[in-house]
Amino acid sequence: MMTAFRLLLATIFIVIAAYTAIVVSNHGLGLLPVFFGDIAKVAWPGQFNLDFMCFLALSALWLAWRHHFKPVGLILGLAGFLGGAFFLSAYLLIMSFKVKGDINLLLVGQTRSNGASA
């Protein structure tokens, strides 16, 4: 099962990297005005962007929590918020090897996996 998960993560990373490269080459790096402009219009594209931004915030919070809100965790959380699935897929792929495929360790980290409270 972990092999399938790792393949999914690698696929997500590659697809987003390729898609992003195409978008940047065609439209430049002007994401933020478009992203927040759509939210300001209060229409369906903005609703999707707001919903997505909340997922990014949850991802950032989980990354910071997993690392006990230490400086590295806060940096990883910021990277997760700004990097989205591109960053999170790479992080999870790398960590899946670091924890030798143990999903509990992957999700909660070593300290919490051992039953210690955070």
Care to describe what's here?
The protein has 5 helices and no strands. It is mostly helical and 118 residues long. Helix 1 crosses helix 4, helix 2 packs across helix 3 (44-66) and helix 3 (44-66) packs across helix 4. It starts with a helix and ends in a 5-residue tail after the last helix. The mean pLDDT is 94.
Secondary-structure map:
Elements: H1 2-27, H2 31-40, H3 44-66, H4 71-98, H5 103-113
In short:
The chain is an all-alpha fold and 118 residues long.
Average pLDDT, all residues:
94
Proportion of strand residues: under 5%
User: Span between N and C termini?
Assistant: 29 Å
Number of helices: 5
Number of strands: 0
For the CA atoms, what is the radius of gyration?
16 Å
Largest sheet: none
**What is the element string, with H for helices and E for strands?**
HHHHH
**pLDDT < 50 runs, ≥5 residues:** none
Percent in helix: over 70%
Q: Pairing-aware structural class of the strands and helices?
A: mainly alpha
Form type: globular
